[in-house]
Amino acid sequence: MTTAPAATASATTAPAAASTARSGSTVTSAQAQPAGTTHKRTAACATRDLNARPGVSQGTAGSVYQVIDFTNISQTTCTLYGYPGVSLAGGSPVRQIGPAATRNTAAPRALVTLAPGATGNALLRITDAGDYPTTQCHPTGAQYLQVYPPGQTTPIYVAYDSTACAGTVGLLSIGAVQPGSGSTS
Predict the structure, then answer these.
(1) N or C: which end of the chain has fewer CB atoms below 10 A?
(2) How does pLDDT run across 117-175, given as a tens digit for each residue?
């Protein structure tokens, strides 16, 4: 079952990865938790536990860097680890347009713990579809980012107008979840 897109940014999960008192998130290296630890393990954040929204964005020659903020909207602490699945989507019914984002491994994966109300983020790079020949790209309007929280199979749709490539050209790359908010507010 998929979550229907809304006209505005809808709930989603996002990667979090930095400890800040303001956001209530913490980050732990995956290697820092030895096997056989006696403390209770915190469950992974499910799609229903998260709200996703666009954070800060900045354009460069040929690309836009868009932060996706993930906020824990549940009443319990949960974790995010790794990379969200992200693609452009549009139409009615809503469908994925073009290939999903590849992983940008520049920043290492880390376990991010989100208390209720805490936020984490992931950085999405969107290459300009106009950089590719029309016959290869097949430019198509997209109205959403289709976001799968790390380890989840149910997407969250975030309102986001962009031009996608309906062909085989991959325009997206996504970084691992990081702590804190990438928003201006």
Answers:
(1) N
(2) 999 999 999 999 999 999 999 999 999 999 999 999 999 999 999 999 999 999 999 99
pLDDT tens digits, residue range 77-108? 999 999 999 999 999 999 999 999 999 999 89
Domain at 25-30+43-179, CATH from 3.40.50, 1.25.40, 1.20.120, 2.60.40: 2.60.40
Q: Which helix (H) or strand (E) holds 134?
A: helix 134-137
Angle in degrees, CA 142, 96, 175, rounded to 5: 85
pTM, full prediction: 0.79
The DSSP secondary structure of 27-41, one letter per residue, reads EE-GGGS-TT--SPP
Integer Cα distance of 160 and 156 in angstroms: 12
Q: What are the structural domain ranges in the chain?
A: 25-30+43-179
